[in-house]
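Methods — Computational structure assignment.
A single polypeptide chain was analysed. Its primary sequence is given first, followed by the predicted tertiary structure written as structure tokens.
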Amino acid sequence: MGKRVTIVTAGHLSACPRMLKAADALACAGHAVRVVSVSHTAWSTATDAVLKRSRTWASSVIDYSVTTARPLQLRSGARMRTMQAVASAVGPTRAPMGVVVRAFSRVHDELVRAAVAAPADLIYGGSTGALAAVAEAAGRLGVPYGIDFEDLHFAERDEPAGELANGLAARVERHVIPGAAFLTAGSPMIADAYAERYGVRPVPIHNTFSIAPAGATPYRDGPLRLYWFSQTLGPRRGIEDAVRAAGEARVPMTLHLRARAIPEFLESVRALRAAVAPQLELVLLDPLNPDDMVAASQAYDAGLAGEDLEPLNRRLCLSNKIFTYLAAGIPTLMSRTPAQARLASTLGEAAFSYESGDVGGLARILRELAVDAGLRERSCAAARAAAAGRWHWEHPDDRGALLAAIGRAV
């Protein structure tokens, strides 16, 4: 018999594909699903509405947008800043937990209220701002809960201001992990890191996606078409290396970037292109509905997944990009972080790897793909085969493992 499952995220639905896929999988398995999420950015709100219209589960949205919910936007911001000041003064390990959770999550109280507004048999959630809310809401309802660690939250930031955020995350993790019925993680290495730190290993659930229809990615003549996407176009995501590598490769190519751009960074990338890679065409694209991301990737010859080696989370994570590209049937150009290098070793010609920051190494890969039509064709075939054989959402080790964990908990 189906159970009542509430899923909680402190992000937009359109920015949290893991929770979106979990909700869909549970609903398809016969559970009554309700999703608690937030709304604070106009373009994401519009995309969220499209997503919800195509789903069968219920939703509850906490709006703290500056345009549509100014009072909560002001109140939640002031509360978070106050709690962060207290936590910073006394230290994350010594601050009361009530201070910690509100310094860590802008809308902790609102998430809890929304989560307990309807009965549930299980609460499951992820994203940094939802971790403590999941545990508190489950406690109030007297039901089990599961926590998703898509990222290594206690090591997500390496700038000076990130020390407080990492410390708050570690305190929240120590608070919620012991009572969880199960834990999930975004990659095997993230699961291993949590096991080493807290003595309990989450179930790895990869950021995989449903496979695009077979034969939808024919070989194309013309310049090499490269693709990259994320929520935000900013520094330290391998874009600068890709532009420099395109200049060294000295072959015509296009690079399409799908994200909301930080204006200053976009201007710096355009200036870099003009200086070192005039033959490269840069195209900025608007963000898309998550349901359309795999299909959108099919228009390209390869996808970029360049990650820095810092902070620690970047060394251990496996991003949505990689598995979106594979599901679309295009190869991935990935920097050799520990997690990505391990994955690349299993993918054959579906992956081309280079050391992070090695512009010359990436340039050689780009040149080979640009001039070798057979390599492009083989690499697309290898990507489709890799997705079909293992790297798709319906695989027992991803969707199946999540459903099994939830089934044991309820």
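Note: The CA atoms of residues 134 and 372 lie 51 Å apart.
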